[in-house]
Amino acid sequence: QVQLVESGGGLVQAGGSLRLSCAASGRTFSTYARGWFRQAPGKEREFVAAISWSGDSAYYADSVQGRFTISRDNAKNTVYLQMNSLKPEDTAVYLCAAGNPTTVQAMGVMSRYHYWGHGTQVTVSS
């Protein structure tokens, strides 16, 4: 069975860093784009970052540009999200996904991702 499992979330002070990981099993996702989304309490799920199947291109939401870095290791079937300079507004459940968006615009569209993890909680205190 295909599974995506996030890890690395936790409680951190503002300005701190966390590195999220998402390990996949049941299928090799080397040819899939990988993405990170988040959902804060009382808010809609939003796009955070995505990386192409080759790892050559990465895309970020404006809110995290310059602070977060997405990367992948296809040999490990794993995608990462390095989060630096964390802010309280980054507090959310972070979910990883895999899919096959056909355009750069689609990289940030939830419906283009067909495999999802259950999420990991990131809490940033003031």
Describe the structure.
This protein has no helices and eleven strands. The chain has strands at residues 3-7, 10-13, 18-25, 33-39, 46-51, 58-60, 68-73, 78-83, 92-99, 113-116, 120-125. Strands 2, 4, 5, 6, 9, 10 and 11 form a seven-stranded mixed beta sheet that branches. The chain has a four-stranded antiparallel beta sheet with strand order 1-3-8-7, with no helix packed on it.
Summarize this structure briefly.
About 0% of the residues lie in helices and about 50% in strands.
Spatial shape: globular
Please compute the radius of gyration using only Cα atoms.
13 Å
The helix tally amounts to 0
Poorly predicted runs of 5 or more residues: none
Number of strands: 11
The description of the largest β-sheet is: 7 strands, mixed
SS class: mainly beta
Distance between the termini: 40 Å
Sequence of secondary-structure elements: EEEEEEEEEEE
Estimate what percentage of residues fall within beta strands: over 45%
**Helix share, percent:** under 10%
Overview features:
126 residues; mainly beta
Topology, element by element:
Blueprint: E1 3-7, E2 10-13, E3 18-25, E4 33-39, E5 46-51, E6 58-60, E7 68-73, E8 78-83, E9 92-99, E10 113-116, E11 120-125
Parallel strand pairs: 2-11
Antiparallel strand pairs: 1-3, 3-8, 4-5, 4-9, 5-6, 7-8, 9-10, 9-11
